[in-house]
Amino acid sequence: MSNVTLTIDGQTVSVPAGTTILQAAQSIGAEIPAICYHEACTPNALCRNCVVEVEGARVLVASCVAQVAANMVVYTRSPRVERSRRTILEMLASAVDLSEAPDIQRMMQEYSADAQRFPQAERREIPLIDDNPMYVRDYSKCILCWRCVQVCADDAQFTFAINFSGRGYETTIGTFFGKPMPATTCVFCGQCVGVCPTGALKPKSEWLLEQGLSIDQVFAATRQERTGAEKRTRTWRRA
Ligand code: SF4
0.70 cut: is pTM over it? Predict the structure, then answer.
């Protein structure tokens, strides 16, 4: 494959054609923050935190999906880029509980984002869903990054148990027809929990420990539920 030469932050870079701007920047140690991007998932340019400025481009460019081009001139941290990232972080903080999202908190510090900038914003307050023995779902902490859906689908597990649900501000991640997780195709592989960057998905045992239960109580509670869930799954499969 032929190489493409471009400039990133004043540095000349030569990378194979088809490389994304994000990968090219990483190859020279330029750090571009990204929230929805995960190396195990297909990039989808949802969070817009990885935007960069490209000379001649009308709008900022999502570097996780935009490919390099010959003689491209890229700025990964211009004032315009910084302002955009800061605003996105501030909007996230205005509506979502980021208390268990350490990477995003670090970004907020780095970009001097003010979590109180939009005090009138309506917060996403959604009751926690505890419907299975393996993990809980707290969509008040969900930033809709799509990672869990991707690993549940064709980026990893091919199970397709979850997807976007609702429209606009009401959008959440959900199951088909809002079914409880044991009644879906979920196989409880845990990959969604593993890629969630905000604590919206959390192992049930961890959550129960946080609620003050002892290890024995956690074990007893989840064992009881596991048995119940297995029975429910068997019934559902026979139906
Ligand atoms: S639950 Fe977690 S991984 Fe899934 S979309 Fe929300 S923040 Fe992303």
Answer: yes
Domain that holds residue 43: 3-81
Question: Which two three-digit tokens encode residue 196?
Answer: 């969630």
Spacing, Cα 112 to ligand 1 middle (Å): 24
> Which CATH number characterizes residue 185's domain?
3.30.70.20
Kindly give the distance from the C-alpha atom of residue 56 to the centroid of ligand 1, in angstroms, as a whole number.
34
- No. of H helices and E strands in the chain? 7, 9
Pocket of ligand 1 (CB under 6 A): 142-148, 173, 195-198, 200-201
Q: Which residue, by CA, sits nearest to atom 6 of ligand 1?
A: 142
pLDDT in tens, 135-148: 999 999 999 999 99
Buried b (16+ CB within 10 A) or exposed e, 30-56: bebbbbbbbeebebbbbbbbbbbbbee
Q: What is the mean pLDDT of the chain?
A: 93
165 CA → ligand 1 middle, Å: 13
The CATH code of the domain that includes 68 is: 3.10.20.740
Q: How far is the CA of 150 from the centre of ligand 1 (A)?
A: 10
Query: Which amino acid, 168?
Result: G
